[in-house]
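Cross-check.
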Amino acid sequence: KKLKVNGPTQNFEVDCDPLIATTNMREEVLKDSINTYEVSANEFWQAPEMQNVKNKIKQMAIERGLSEQDIIAHINSGDPTFKDVSKDFNDAFEQSDKAQSAKKKMDVALDSWQQNHERLNKTALQLHASDHPRAKDTFDVLEDSEKQMLKNSAEVPKTENESQSNLEKIKENLQRLREAAKAMIEKLAALFGKGAKNETSNDPSPS
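Predicted model, tokenized:
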């Protein structure tokens, strides 16, 4: 159900169900965070100091038969055969105010995405537990957003002062959420299983 609201400049509708209203809000924040991250990543590589590094990564990818994301993964892993391009990247980053500003915006967008992704994940589990028809769509939104952020975060190496790349942060957080969700499902299964067992405790055991 929708509630019609007369705004100062236009009329609009909001969902009367608090859980759905919260779901809608968090989905919009997820989308906004992804968009901000993408725009900031483009700004990062458009910085004059970073364009030469980007071109080197592209050329290395062609020469070695790899993708640009593969080259960045090798940089992130500390592969010594990629130490020259890694040094070029960090030197250029240190000299570029524009790249540093874009990186900060990327990190803020990532924090926002991770926080709201976790909250929306909990909301999706609530919807699922109540057999709400919106549950599947919400899980689909989560899955799509994960794919987009994994892709986006794989396109920029970690800087010299970072212990983890943004891609590694996302993967670690997703693994933690999956383990928490699995534990919750097992807890619910045990709870309902115990209830079912109590209900049938007076039945004769099979011979």
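Strands lie at 2-6, 11-15. The mean pLDDT is 86. Passed to J.P. for a second look.
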